[in-house]
Amino acid sequence: MGRVTTRRPVLRITADTATRRPDTLAVEEPLEIRVGGEALTITMRTPGHDVDLVHGFLLAEGMIGSREDIESVRYCDGVDENGANTYNVLDVALARGVTIPEGTGRRAFATTSACGVCGKTSLDEVRTRTRYPLRNSAGATIGTHTLAALPETLRRHQQVFDSTGGLHAAALFTLDGALLALREDVGRHNAVDKVLGWALTDNRVPLSHSLLMVSGRASFELVQKAVMAGVPILAAVSAPSSLAVDLAAESDLTLVGFLRGDTMNVYTAPERIKTG
Known about the structure:
about 25% helix; flat
């Protein structure tokens, strides 16, 4: 696996002083995902938990729905100038009888760490049908006091962010506030793919009694990923986009934004949030 952080020289200026020193940065490298030896996409990510990322990506794209749909995932022939494996190419072998569904076309160019749905040919293609409709999670509820404690728990477990200040985080919690898993990445969508991929390989999907928490804003693609994994509640410390709210309402996902301290905005499906 590649390095998660690296060091670079920096000129540090404070008030009237300037000093040169090394600074710790989050690594960003390309990951090529292949299916059956054929290139599917390239995404820019922070190395680490790559197998989780691939499982979560394929789940969110509607290509798989359980861990049994994948036979194997292996690193292959990505090498640097010295011939060493860069661990930047992963090839997925689907299980016998599993094929890529119609409408989940290959992406013809690299997706950046800021882009989750780049390369899609139409909005209708993005609205992938989930195998786990959220109407089956009607009994999933969480109290506001439990919700209010989640951002601090998320922040406390962001280990790489502490040294770089440059990573997003996504975490899965039980509905009583217990942390199940947390992943960090330079890309918001990659962090979510990694944590959902962990859940898939741990046989926890659909996540019908879990909550997904993200460290930034809630965009359309993050709502889409939650819906595809059967997550009934998505909470973000920042704002949602209008399209994220529209998709959450359409999918019966509870979307919480501006979760800071004991304040929050509940945009959709508020019946899952218990006050008092």
